[in-house]
Write a structure and sequence with these properties.
414 residues; mainly alpha; two-stranded antiparallel sheet; globular
């Protein structure tokens, strides 16, 4: 006679901890990381955007977000079986953890993804436009892709896409949306001729440290258990972050003659974002290679986007998160292999027996997510612009700074 599923206290304790860690990534981690990078007249606007997104997405996730993302539904979208989380009782389980905990854990992912996009349009987007766009984007982009990749009925899930913690769901969607937003909204006044250095690198490094620590909940928590898979995900996450930081620092040192604090922390974020989809499938050797490649390739992409393409992705969301997500999702299909000696991983998806077959699925996931996100994001920005009579603040408001012009507050009273 089959036993009734019961709650696993160890797994539940770890996911409770991971949930707090992932929320910590946004508030205060990402908020401080981004906040330090903008000019002093816009610090509060960035903190406000991250905070407001956390509140807004939480309520939308309660109303229908979780149900549409993880309800059975069909291959493309979930259903309305858990609207307002009415069917999520204290005793309901998801595997051997409370269903309420799974809903809360996934909520923190839904919060940080649109918050990442803030970095692309920092210092020039209307607060009202940001709120409307974030709400629409959550339902039109994040939730469908989340369902495709992480729901048991999702079509990419059933094809065997390896995305342990959000290479496609979080980083490609946020990165591509950021690139589209930067192009549609346009450059900041003075870009690229006027220098716009970070106003507080101490704040940025503090936020970066919080992101690094919080990312253990992001990746190791995605095992949804306190087991060896979670421990290995934590180890490879740390290795990739360190490798990405050192690689970025080294290439910057060689090119500009001095290693910058901004460079080493950005390389760390690149290493973290790139290992994310692969974190539950690769070993330490693979993580080292992934982190090194992340630091080098994402650095090159930042130069390409800003210096060659002249796109004002203010805080480098696309070259770090978008490209990192693409790179990590593809490399998961390589280093998951069990036949690479020291660089071997945990094996391919169920039913897939060769690297070429796994890479085919990984590339499909990357291309579909990239194209879908780009098209829908463009449409949503245009629709939002109609609702708010334009996406960006006036030239005068931008010159004054968003803190005073939108919120009538100063970040510092010194």
């Amino acid at each position: 006679m089959a036993q009734e599923p019961t709650i696993n206290s160890a797994n539940t304790a770890w996911i409770l901890t991971s949930t707090a860690l992932v929320l910590f990534m946004t508030l205060p981690g990402l908020a401080l990381f981004y906040g330090g990078l903008v000019r002093v007249k816009n610090i509060l606007s960035v903190l406000m955007q991250c905070f407001a997104i956390a509140c807004l997405v939480s309520i939308l996730w309660l109303i229908a977000g979780y149900s549409l993302a993880f309800g059975t539904g069909n291959a493309w979208i979930g259903d309305f079986s858990m609207v307002f989380m009415a069917s999520i009782t204290e005793d309901a389980l998801s595997g051997d953890i409370p269903l309420s905990l799974h809903a809360m854990y996934q909520m923190t992912f839904a919060i940080i993804t649109p918050a990442l996009i803030v970095g692309a349009f920092a210092e020039r987007m209307k607060f009202s436009s940001m709120l409307i766009f974030s709400a629409l984007w959550l339902f039109a982009v994040y939730i469908p892709v989340c369902h495709w990749v992480w729901s048991g009925s999702g079509w990419l899930y059933n094809k065997g896409l390896l995305d342990f913690a959000g290479g496609t769901v979080v980083h490609i969607t946020a990165g591509v949306a950021a690139l589209v937003a930067a192009v549609v909204i346009g450059k900041r006044n003075g870009f690229p001729t006027t220098a716009m250095p970070p106003h507080n690198m101490t704040m940025t490094v503090t936020g970066a440290g919080m992101l690094w620590v919080g990312w253990f909940g992001f990746n190791a928590g995605s095992a949804l258990a306190a087991n060896g898979n979670a421990a290995m995900a934590m180890l490879v996450t740390h290795i990739s972050a360190a490798a990405g930081a050192l690689a970025w620092m080294a290439i910057e040192w060689m090119r500009f003659r001095k290693p910058s604090v901004l460079g080493i922390v950005t390389g760390m974020v690149a290493g973290l974002g790139t290992i994310t989809p692969a974190s539950g499938y690769v070993g330490p050797g693979g993580a080292l290679v992934i982190g090194l490649l992340a630091g080098i390739i994402c650095f090159v992409m930042t130069q390409l986007v800003k210096r060659v393409w002249k796109i004002d992705d203010s805080l480098d969301v696309f070259p770090v998160h978008g490209i990192g997500g693409v790179l990590g999702t593809i490399l998961a299909g390589v280093f998951a292999s069990t036949e690479l000696g020291t660089f071997s991983g945990q094996g391919f998806a169920s039913g897939i027996n060769s690297m070429s077959e796994q890479l085919g699925v990984q590339l499909l996931g990357v291309v579909v997510t990239f194209v879908y996100t780009a098209i829908v994001t463009y449409i949503l920005l245009k629709v939002t612009g109609v609702f708010t009579s334009g996406l960006r603040v006036t030239k005068e408001e931008e010159t004054i700074g968003l803190d005073l012009s939108l919120h009538e507050e100063d970040g510092y009273k010194l």
